[in-house]
Every structure is written in C-alpha cells, then in structure tokens.
Write a structure and sequence with these properties.
The complex is a heterotrimer of chains A (175), B (290) and C (486). With 175 residues, chain A is mostly helical. Chain A is built from nine helices and two strands, in the order ααααααααββα. A two-stranded antiparallel ribbon of chain A has the order 1-2. In chain A, helix 4 packs across helix 7. Chain B has 290 residues and is α/β, with parallel strands linked by helices. Chain B folds into two domains: 118 residues, Glutathione S-transferase Yfyf (Class Pi), Chain A, domain 2; 155 residues, Rossmann fold (3-Layer(aba) Sandwich), CATH 3.40.50.11810. In chain B, helix 4 crosses helix 5, helix 6 packs across helix 8 and helix 9 crosses helix 11. Chain C has 486 residues and is an alpha/beta fold. In chain C, 29% of the residues lie in helices and 20% in strands. Chain C contains 14 helices and 20 strands. In chain C, strands 2-1-3-4 form a four-stranded parallel β-sheet, sandwiched between helices. In chain C, helix 1 packs parallel to helix 5, helix 2 crosses helix 3 and helix 13 packs across helix 14. Chain C is extended, with a radius of gyration of 32 Å. The N and C termini of chain C lie far apart (83 Å). The chains are: A mainly alpha (175), B alpha/beta (290), C alpha/beta (486). Chains A and B meet through helix 6, helix 7, helix 8, strand 1 and helix 9 of A and helix 1, helix 2, helix 3, helix 5 and helix 9 of B.
C-alpha cells in the first residue's frame, strides 16, 4: 500500500468524491449564498497580488455550481491559506474553506497533485513527519545535523505499522 | 513551575533547530518545564489541501497522546497550534465527528476527550508567564534596537476560533520586546504573509512574497526582523538570499526568532541559542556575548 | 355557579382547516366540562360568523365564549364586540390561537391537531375563570413630552404645539439642532441645512406652547399610558440663564480656550471649558463643561476664573446644582437620533492609525463654512490641501460582525460630499468612491446620482480590504469588479 491508494491516483474514489461533493454543496448553501460580491476578499488577498486567484469569483462560481471547472483548474492551488479573506469578509463567507474543499476534490478525483505535496504525504505515511531530519548549513558554512546539537530524539510514531493502518483506513473514509 | 508537553511538529525538529534550542534554553528560566513525548506525528495542517479528514485525524491523534500524560500542550509552531486548536474546536462541538475520529484513534489505543488546552509561544510568554517576569530576567537589554515584528498568518487568524493575539492589531510580541529593551515599531506591511505554504507547489511565488516584505522592512531602516514561526523563519532567514535574487534586491536583514532575542537579553550564550544557524546577517548587530 | 361555555372554531378558509382536524377538535371540545355547544364556520370573523355566535349565546344562555381561530392581535377586538352584542360582557371571551401558533407553524396533521386540543383545553379552562370587566374612560393628559431636540424632535414638538398641546422638549446637549446643525447641505436638493433648521429652532424657542428643557435628561418614567409622570434632571450649566446674553466673551477669555475637543465639530476643532456648541445655538446661552473646567474639577482656576472677569452680565454661578423636575404628560415621543459607528473596531481601515482617515460627519464639519477650518478642506495630519480623497462606503454596515443592516443614507451622503468637494476643490483633486451598491432610492436621488456620475469622479465597484499608511500618504488596494483589475 502506498501513496497511490492514499491520493487515489489509481482508481477514482467514488464514495470519497460524493462526500466531498456533499461538503461543497453544504458550503454552497450555507455560505456562498450570502456573498454579495463586495470584493473585499480579493482586494486583500495575498495570493491575488502575485497570482490569478480571485476569492470572490471562487465563491460566485460555487454558487453557480461550476465545481468541475474549478477542480480542474490550477488557480485553486495558488491559495496561501493566510485566512485574510475569512477574517475580513463582512458576511462571514470563507473562500479559503471552499478552496480547501475544492483541492480535496481535485485529489480525490485523481487529478495530479502539484509540486511537493506528494512527497510530503509519502513522508507522513512512512515516518509520520513531513520530512526527515535534515543537515543544515550554518552561517559560516559548516554542516550540522540535529544529533550535533544536544537535542533529544525527534518524536515520531512509535509503531509505524499501526499508524499507517490508521492512515490508510482514513484515506478511504468519507470526509 | 508549569509543565507542558512539547509538541514540536515537523519543520522545527527536522530543520529549524535554532527555534527548538532557544525554546529549551529560555523557558526553564521562566519556570516552564517541557516534557518530551514519543509518538507524535505531523499535525496535518500543511496537507489539509490534500485531505481535510486526514488532517483532523492526525491532530486529534496528537492531542490524544498528550491527554494520556494529562498535561496541556505547548505547540511552538503557529501552524500546528492552529491545526490542534481548530481540531479541538470541531471535536468538542460536533458529536458525530468526535465519534468518527475516536473510532480511528481506537486502533492505536488512543482516545480524544478534550481535556487538555493548547498554547503557543506567544500566549505562553505574554499571558501565562507575563511580561513582568520576563523583565526581571533581563541582564543585557537590547539598546533600543529598532525591530519589526512578524506574527505570520496562522498565529492571529482566523480570530473567530480564538487565537493567541488580535488579528488586526497584535501587540503581544511588541510588549515582550519592549520588556527586553528593544524598540518595536509599526509598519504598513506588518500583517503580510510570508508565502510559506506556497513553497510546496509554487516556491518562486512564495519567495517573491518573502522578498517583497523584507525589502520594505529594509527600506524603512529596521535593525532586525523578529518572527515566531518555523515556516516564516525558513522563508525570511534560511532563504533570504534566494528571496533577494527573486525580487532583484540586496537583502541584508538580520532575522531572529523571538525566543533567540529573549535568550540574548537574558545573557545566554549565542551558540546555545543556535545563532550560528541563522543565515541572515545577525552578526551585524553585535548583540550579547559569547 | 358553573359557567356555560360556547366553543366556536373557525376554519379560516384552509389556513387552519388544512392542517388541523376541525371535526375532531369540535368533538373534543364537547367532551370538556362546561362546554354546552360546539360550532364551526369557515370564516368566523364575517357577519355570518358573528351572527352565529350571537344567536348561540341567546339560544344556549351562554356566559362565556371561547373562539379557536387566528391570533388575538387580529380579531380579539372584533369578537369582543360580537360577544357584547350577543348580550354578555365582552371580557368573557377567550381566544385560542390555533393558526399562528399551530396550523401555520406545523406540518404534521396529527400532531397539530393534538396541539390544538391542548390549546383549546387551556382556553376553556381559563374562560371558566374569567370575570366581567367594565371599561372606563380616563382623561389623557393633553400635554406631550418629546425626548430629543434634533430636527425630528423639533418638528414633532412644533406640530403638536400648533395643535394646541403643551409640549416639553427635552434635549441632553446644551442646544437643540442635533445632527442637522452639523451638516452643511442636505441631499438631494443641496439645500443649506442651517437655513432650514434655524428658523424652526427659533420657532421652538418662541412658541408659547413649547417649554424647552435643554441640557436636561429624562431620568425616570412612571404612571401609565395617557398619564405619565416623568422625572427630568436639568443639569447645572453653572451659568444663570436669565442673566446670560450669549455674547461669548467668556469663551474667548477661558483659560482652557481651544484645549478641549469640540463635540459639535466631531473632534476636528477645539473649544473652551465654557462654551456654546455653535454660534446659532438655541438657547443662546453658555454652558460650563464640568468634566474639564478647572474651577469645578480642582476648585481653583489661576487666581480668579477668567470667565467671571470677562462676563459683564455677572452670569457665572459655580454654586449651581442639578435640578430635578417632575412633569405630567399624556404622550411621549422618542426622537433621540443616531450615532455614527466608531470605525476603530474595523482596525484594518486605519481610523485609529492615521489622522487622515475620517468619518463622514468629520468631513461634514470640514466642508461646513462654520466648521473648524472655515470650510477649507485640509488634511488633518498636516493641514495641507489633499491631492486625492477616497470614499469607502459600507464601513460597518451590511456587515455580520458589526451592523447587519444597510444605513440607508451612506450612499447619498457620500454623493453629496462628492458634489460639495468638487465645488470647492475643482478637478485638482482626484475623488474616488469605493462602493458595494449605490442605493439612491428616494425622490430625486437617482437623478442626483446621475449628476455626480457626470462630474469626473472615479467610481470603483468593490470594497478595499485595508487602508495602509505609506510614508506621508495612504494607499488603498481595491479590486474593482467592473473591470476585474486591482
């Protein structure tokens, strides 16, 4: 069992997708209806200043039910999860939550996950952490690792097999 | 003497050693005892985009481990603190989710009961220890060092679920820094994001955000930039040179963890605080002693 | 003596009948002790229904009536009349609301009927205990109290006084006039606000039927409808109203001249401790601010209070005390007006961080020629002429975290300002308006909006997330949804 099952790049996880769909439609009814497109989220969006993300548009598209378009796009992965949109929205709509659901859906639909997420996920699976202990360079160009520094051992899952079992069960469970 | 389970997360123990070193040096002096536990895993927040349920379960598992010890959790990384706090809120308020998650945790003999609290470095230092106690320990005040504070995003937002400081005008780091003799000043870009989470898929965009903010800080003549999050510090300190290249600016801003600066003012030696691990030009300031 | 209750149930068309089982309810009522007749009709409030009840009262010699129908707010009054016409005292009527509280609130027929039965059971039990009551007429005191001396209070007081009633007008600040006195012009007609207001203020002052209690507050209301006993505290002005001529020499002489933020000028200008809120104040008398006056807070003001020295009418009296009076009125009108939301709570907009971020009332005072700058528009931070002025609408309104409602006047107020600013500053100054919707709903409003659109103003449809300080000016990022650009 490996990353493939977890990220469902093999077969499409129909149950998982339908549950995320449920989550999305709940978000649609509970929050996207209240958005009156004032644009305050996009005016302050950290990602918008550099990239093409427009949170208010995401909310509008969700309201229209255009989920597939968004799920298949690259723009949903540009969100930095800074939560400014959720903080400042006068109607308490949270585009960031919608984006998480869309990203989850993209993964569950078998889309290619961008960048490093696969490696991070794989690492969590095998050792419980996003990455293993690294060697770092000091300011005067020496190489040091954790063991050189008198720090206790890194905390990791004590029984990796049990941990992995739990994770694999979760991956196929509903959201 | 207050005891906490240290929940280190992923980035601090595997890469951002200076944060861990300075925490372990400074907190015992403030009567805080840190207990190390085996068995922790990632909090799940960075992979929330992949599977939110997975993240919730990972956080719940970590909280359950701490509950076994009966101690509150100290999570120095604000992203972990958000993950754990948000998961706690969900599991405390939604019975259905609580039951579901506990079924998974049972496999490892764990259960989430919601008995423990979760704190971060900022509320631990400001609310629990208190600025007065910090002031008492200052041996080498920082000579009115002009500093820019960086709270990051996850430490102060979303305010609805309760965060260690205010989301629009956070001042707790400023209070602590004043107590140790520094001079924190407000600046327009204070609440801007470091871009850290984008490193996973758009590393250059992440560094652009980092570089832009540092550029502004440098232009305004600050002596130092203070952060409190391993993700932020990795951007601003460890990757400052690269960030400078991306925004075509020569960046020479000394970047410290808040706890490192605290340690310096308490008279702790620089190597114990991991200061040679800072890649930004911290030597410029001639702080502290050997 | 056991009562004979008549039970009447109304179908209310299908409003009740489609959810509650009428027949079952009727049969159920018959089983209850005291009920001698149980009847139904489609529309009990009609003439036919009324006659049904009246006939039944006579036929069965009823002494109590219970009607299961709509809310008593609808027809209790009507049915009381019917019962009285039927020959029994009107107060022997009890209504069971099986519409608003039952058939309209529930969908399940069985459960709704069970609930209706419970409601009816209760009503019938109460009806058995009802006593006959007599209505009496009480004289209403023909005097009125109006609380609040702004334009609304002033107009009401004048209307009532013209009708021949004595009116007490209580205003908590030293002068009447309220918000309208702070405005320069009104929308959409661009009338001069003071020109409309001041004559009315004078009328109030001179009207034989109006007693103006300024610098006073209502501290207690007792009595009952039509006969209120109201306690009013007349706050001490420390100035003898009979002697003061309103000349203003004291204000100029005061040791604290220009040291206290003026409330009337929204803090944009200063005043002395002894002051008149504005030059056309009614009453035209000075007042001493007890929170700041040196004599009143510290017991001494230099060697001698300068106001006493300056006052030729010898009107200053530091020994004055608050006075409590009691008045008797038949009606009270609340006209206490509005306050502006304090934008400090929306910290991201920089109101607390920068002097150059101001509220619309503060701008109003800058625009007004009787304001702290004599009508000159300057930057509060450095006194210089601004190069650009941006209006952000809907701060704190239509906002679930502050006020969920729309303020209704913000859009028009902003458009009015744009006009006045353009008039004063010409096209040298760039004026931007960031709006979410422009609500120009009243008579002449849309035409006014059109006029402003023609005046070289930049309208951005969107809401900025924050206002940032940038050196000596402010920067605002706004995503304009009409052009999709930042």
């Amino acid at each position: 069992m490996g990353i493939v099952d977890l990220t469902s790049m093999g077969e499409s996880q129909v149950k998982l997708r339908s549950e995320i769909n449920e989550r999305l439609s709940r978000l649609k009814d509970e929050i996207s209806d209240y958005c009156f497109q004032c644009g305050k989220c996009t005016s302050g969006c950290e990602a918008h200043k550099l990239l093409e993300l427009e949170p208010h548009k995401i909310v509008a598209l969700l309201k229209q039910g255009l989920i597939d378009e968004m799920v298949n796009s690259d723009v949903i992965w540009t969100c930095m999860s800074c939560f400014k949109c959720r903080e400042r929205c006068p109607q308490k709509v949270a585009p960031v939550e919608i984006l998480f659901a869309l990203k989850n859906m993209a993964v569950a639909s078998g889309k290619q996950i961008p960048g490093n997420y696969t490696a991070m996920l794989q690492s969590v699976l095998s050792i419980g952490l996003l990455q293993d202990v690294k060697s770092v360079t000091t300011r005067d160009n020496k190489t040091i690792s954790r063991s050189d520094l008198n720090l206790p051992k890194v905390s990791k899952p004590t029984d990796p097999t049990k941990f992995q079992m739990m994770l694999s069960k979760l991956a196929v469970e509903k959201v | 003497m207050k005891k906490y389970v240290l929940y280190p997360g992923c980035v601090m123990p595997t890469e951002q050693y200076a944060y861990e070193m300075s925490i372990r040096e400074v907190l015992p002096l403030l009567n805080i005892k840190l207990v190390d536990l085996e068995g922790f895993s990632c909090c799940g927040e960075p992979i929330k985009s992949v599977n939110q349920m997975l993240s919730l379960a990972l956080s719940a598992r970590n909280i359950a481990l701490a509950e076994k010890e009966g101690l509150d959790i100290f999570a120095p990384c604000p992203m972990c603190h958000l993950a754990l706090s948000e998961s706690k809120r969900i599991l405390d308020s939604e019975l259905g989710m609580n039951e579901k998650i506990n079924k998974f945790l049972a496999d490892e003999g764990l259960s989430y009961t919601g008995k423990v609290d979760i704190v971060n470095t900022l509320d631990l230092l400001h609310d629990i220890v208190g600025v007065d106690k910090i002031k008492e320990l200052v041996k080498k005040p920082l000579k009115e060092l002009k500093v820019a504070t960086h709270y990051g995003c996850h430490l102060i937002r979303p305010s609805e679920i309760g965060r260690p400081d205010d989301s629009e005008n956070p001042q707790k780091m400023e209070k602590i820094l004043e107590a140790i003799g520094a001079k924190p000043l407000d600046y327009p870009e204070k609440l801007d994001c470091c871009g850290g989470l984008l490193t996973a898929n758009l590393p250059d965009s992440a560094l652009t955000k980092t570089g832009q903010k540092l550029q502004k800080v440098q232009e305004q003549g600050f002596d130092a930039f203070i952060d409190i999050c391993p993700w932020c510090h990795r951007q601003y300190d460890s990757k400052q040179t690269k960030a400078g290249e991306i925004v075509a600016a020569k960046l020479e801003v000394p970047v410290f963890y808040l706890t490192q600066l605290l340690g310096i003012s308490f008279g702790i030696s620089k190597d114990k605080l991991g200061l040679d691990l800072n890649l930004s030009p911290v030597d410029k300031l001639n702080l502290g002693g050997k | 003596m056991s009562k004979k209750i008549g039970f009447f149930i109304c179908h209310c068309g299908i409003n009740i009948a489609s959810t509650v089982d009428i027949k079952e309810l009727m049969d159920y009522a018959k089983t209850l002790d005291g009920v001698v007749v149980s009847q139904d009709y489609k529309y009990m409030c009609s003439d036919v229904g009324a006659n049904l009840i009246k006939d039944s009262i006579k036929k069965h010699k009823l002494d109590g009536v219970v009607i299961a129908c709509c809310s008593p707010r609808m027809h209790e009054h009507t049915f009381r009349g019917v019962v009285e016409a039927g020959g029994i005292n009107a107060f022997n009527l009890e209504i069971a609301n099986i519409r608003e509280q039952c058939s309209w609130a529930h969908k399940d027929k069985y459960l709704a009927t069970e609930k209706a039965k419970a409601l009816v059971r209760g009503a019938i039990a109460k009806a058995k205990l009802l006593e006959s009551l007599e209505t009496s007429k009480i004289d209403v005191t023909p005097e009125a109290l109006v609380i609040g001396g702004g334009i609304a209070g002033i107009q009401v007081a004048l209307d009532l006084a013209e009708e021949g009633h004595k009116v007490y007008l209580v205003e908590k600040s030293p002068s009447i006039g309220g918000r309208m006195a702070q405005l320069d012009k009104t929308f959409p007609t661009l009338d001069c606000s003071s020109c409309i207001l001041t004559p009315k203020m004078m009328e109030v002052a001179n009207h034989s039927n109006i007693e103006l209690l300024s610098y006073s507050e209502v501290i207690g209301i007792d009595g009952s409808i039509g006969n209120y006993i109201v306690k009013v505290k007349k706050k001490a002005r420390f100035v003898n109203m009979d002697k003061c001529t309103g000349c203003g020499d004291c204000m100029v002489a005061c040791r604290l001249k220009d040291r206290i933020p003026s409330e009337f000028n929204e803090g944009m200008g200063m005043r002395s401790a002894i002051y008149m809120p504005f030059p056309q104040a009614v009453p035209l008398k000075c007042t001493i601010d007890a929170q700041n006056c040196l004599m009143l807070t510290r017991g001494k003001c230099g060697t001698e209070p300068l106001c006493v020295e300056a006052c030729e009418a010898d009107a200053i009296d530091f020994k004055q005390k608050d006075e409590e009076v009691e008045i008797n009125v038949g009606a009270i009108v609340l006209a206490t007006g509005y306050d502006l939301l304090d934008p400090t709570s929306l910290y991201e907009y920089g109101y607390a961080r920068s002097d150059d971020v101001i509220t619309s009332l503060e701008m109003e005072r800058l625009i007004s020629s009787s304001g702290p700058t004599g009508g000159e528009i300057i930057r509060p931070s450095n006194g210089e002429k601004p190069k650009s002025i941006t209006y952000i609408l809907c701060i704190g309104s239509r906002d679930e975290t502050e006020c969920p409602w729309c303020c209704r006047i913000g859009c028009m107020s902003a458009l009015k300002h744009v006009y006045l600013l353009k008039e004063k500053l010409g096209d040298d100054v760039e004026i931007n308006v960031c709006y979410t919707d422009i609500r120009s709903f009243g008579k002449g409003y849309e035409e006014f909006y059109r006029k402003i659109r023609g005046m070289r103003t930049n309208f951005f449809r969107g809401r900025p997330s924050e206002v940032r300080n940038a050196g000596d000016h402010l920067t605002i990022d706004i995503f304009d949804t009409t052009t999709n650009t930042l």
